[in-house]
Write the structure tokens for this entry.
Amino acid sequence: MRVVIAEDNVLLAGGLELLLTAKGFHVAAIVQDAPGFLAAVAEHRPDVAIVDVRLPPTFRDEGIHAAIRARRRQPGLPVLVLSQYVERQYAGELLSDGRGGIGYLLKDRVSRVSEFTDALRRVAAGGTVMDPDVIGQLLTRPAHDPIAALTPREREVLALMAEGRDNTTIAARLVITDNAVHKHIGNIFTKLGLSPADSGHRRVLAVLSYLSGRGAVGR
């Protein structure tokens, strides 16, 4: 699996390269700025990219801007944002294209190599993986938002869906049955106005609704 890394911290970038290589990934390029990232993506066509939010020269939001531009040029490019910061506005834009293959993890909260590489593989496969703290910071919502209609338990289920968890894992985390999870997810779809035509697609749309603040995406 080919990976392009955009990270200006030389020690962290080198550590990621060693870690990923040991786990069977191929690091095609490591770059330190947004133009370098866009060029590397165009050249190597990676299976997944790892991008920091803040890159030279201003260290504000160059990385996440570059990720958005890269996904416009290469639709569906899987991107895992790995940062110390949550960039709310552009994180929402990155999530809202409805294509999946997006992750957002906080550097200080990645505690196990296996969890990180598992998240990277899920993003590469088209999944959505979000740190709970990122989710919390993205959830400032207007009162009319359909998400406000969800019960506390339904919001817990949807938050775990946003982390990329399957129904069995959600049931174990919340200490409820698989049938209860299935019922909660059905209620979530109904309240968000998502069509039953494609339940797999509805799951992605529900997560994107939750994270992007757009209500029932594609309604």
Q: What stands out?
A: The radius of gyration is 17 Å. The first helix runs from residue 10 to 22. The longest strand covers residues 26-31.
